[in-house]
Design a protein that fits this description.
about 220 residues; mainly alpha; about 60% helix; Probable_transposase_24; coiled coil
Length: about 220
């Protein structure tokens, strides 16, 4: 949202210099607040940070993965897609029985991450492990290389457990709310009945015709 506001200010002022953006803020920001932001954007600190962020975006590789020597991380959505693709490949090759599946299959993982990067590196194996080293090592060594870099099944199961626990808590709270609502309706109904009975008795004692709170036929006969 703020990026859009800056871009609009650039267009209106026809200048890339933040100083010229004063008075060109969006309607949802007060003028004095906008001018304060402009002053901040004109500082060397902000300009340097913006430059670094822009360079990192340019260096960004496939699926949002930052190349070597640049900051950033792969999103959770991308990681989940890779894990799902890896799981599907494992089940296709070895079946759905976990006992028949290897602890880790590097070929399936390379397929899940769409192969090595342009520099010959494989995501999840660390920045110094080219594809030749990964595929040329025994399975036990491959597993040790990936042990600290990829999301383990234990981590995935932990996330699933936390999600299930949260969902159960929400369902329990919804059930409590429903029960409280029913109890409140019952209390309100009983209160209304008691109130009507009290009014009927008062009208009867005062010999006043009861037209507001009719009761059973027997009560109506008594009121006449």
């Amino acid at each position: 949202m703020m990026n859009d506001a800056r871009n609009q200010a650039k267009c209106k002022s026809q200048s890339d210099n933040p100083v010229d953006w004063r008075g060109h803020g969006p309607p949802w920001i007060r003028a004095e607040h906008w001018d304060s932001l402009v002053s901040y954007w004109n500082t060397d600190k902000w300009k340097n940070n913006a430059k670094i962020a822009k360079e990192n975006r340019i260096k960004q590789g496939q699926d949002g993965e930052m190349k070597k020597h640049s900051t950033g991380s792969v999103s959770f959505v991308t990681t989940k897609k890779r894990l799902d693709k890896y799981k599907a490949s494992i089940e296709f090759k070895y079946g759905t029985d976990r006992d028949n599946q290897p602890e880790f299959d590097p070929d399936s993982w390379i397929n899940a991450v769409n192969g090595p990067s342009k520099g010959g590196r494989i995501y999840g194996f660390g920045p110094r492990q080219p594809v030749s080293h990964v595929l040329g090592t025994p399975a036990s060594t491959r597993r040790s290389i990936l042990a600290h870099d990829i999301m383990s099944n234990e981590d995935v199961n932990k996330l699933k457990s936390e999600f299930a626990s949260t969902r159960n808590t929400i369902e329990e709270n919804n059930e409590r709310i429903a029960n409280l609502t029913v109890r409140l309706e019952r209390v309100e109904k009983n209160h209304n009945v008691e109130l009507r009975d009290t009014v009927r008795n008062m009208l009867r004692e005062l010999n006043i015709p009861n037209t507001q709170f009719p009761s059973s036929s027997r009560s109506r006969n008594n009121d006449i």
